Amino acid sequence: MAWLFLFVAGLLEIGWAVGLKYTEGFSKLVPSVLTLLSMGGSMALLGLALRDLPLGTAYAVWTGIGTVGTAVFGIMVLGEPAGVLRLVCITMITCGILGLKLAH
To answer: 27, 62, 67, 97 - which has most CB atoms within 10 Å?
Structure first.
């Protein structure tokens, strides 16, 4: 169950990172509320996952999911560059996340 909590926490991290783009400095109510809810949910689920997972592993996986998801969102939705080096780096982060999961 801890890994499921961690995975969903990572997805919510993507949500709040993307949400920050749309809050316009927290001046827009709906995106701001959704972003804050996503932040709170992400932290709460990370806390639940930490009951059973080592801190270093859980934190690295959580931030990795957020980093990769946010970068992919930027490329696919916001038209950010998807150069070879950038894609290789995203792949390396993903491999690191999988490696931490397998090493646990």
So the answer is: 62
Return the closest-CA partner of residue 9 out of 38, 51, 33.
38
CA distance 78 to 73: 7
Amino acid at 103: A
pTM for the model:
0.89
Tokens coding 77: 């939705």
Pairwise CA distance, residues 43 & 49, whole Å: 10
Per-residue 3-state assignment (H helix, E strand, C coil) for 68-98: HHHHHHHHHCCCCCCCHHHHHHHHHHHHHHH
The pLDDT assigned to 44 comes to 98
Sign of the four-CA dihedral 88, 90, 91, 93: positive
